[in-house]
Design a protein that fits this description.
The protein has 225 residues and is α+β, with helices and mostly antiparallel strands. The protein has two domains: 2-59, no CATH class; 67-221, Transcriptional Co-activator pc4, Chain A (Roll). The chain is 32% helix and 33% strand. The chain contains four helices and nine strands. The chain has helices spanning 2-16, 32-59, 135-151, 211-221; strands spanning 71-73, 79-83, 87-96, 107-115, 124-133, 155-159, 166-172, 179-191, 194-206. The two termini are 53 Å apart.
Amino acid sequence: MAAAGVVSGLAVAALATQGLSRFLYDVTRFDPLSLSAAAGIVILLALLAATLPTLRAARMNPARVLGEDGSCRSSRKTNMLIRDKMASVEIALRQMGQVGTPSEGDLGVDVAATSAATGVGGPFAGRNDSVWIGRDEWARFLEDLRRLERARRAEARVESMSPGEFRLAVIVTGRAGDVAADGWVGRRYAARDGIAHDRVSFSVELDPSALPLLVRQFEAFAPAR
């Protein structure tokens, strides 16, 4: 395309400069140095225009390209973000149980969730930076997630070891194969009248075409042991 533009540009220049010859000083209308410089600048600009976006795309995480609606992405290998315009849940791998200990393979994660304003209030946001998920629970979740991807029905659910801290369920919501990620993050704390609970629920509608990517992201997040 750039070469075609240079050729057509030289042809137009040859016609356009016929009446300008008398205004030129110490240079001809077909001066090779001037024409070569102009053609070189055009080609250089075309190469830059094509190369810079290509380099930027090559460095981009494919998961990030999915956009904001029903997307899932990994900002780091140990981070998962699932969101749409109304809600989000972010899971960050904090640590894993050490080999040779009773907690070997268990996941320590930080969870943050948001939910947009509704008729009953909001917006809402909450987090818990001390969630633990059992090794076997995580392995079952990954297996159920793979089965859901293949069959496009049922659900895959994972819950924290301590009740009331975290739940995530990836669900096929209808015959059309719509997919959602539902759940909540909460925490318990001491109150005047005993133990109190805070909880923020979320429901994220996912693009069904993003389900395979979601599965791969969870597998890379923390492979089952």
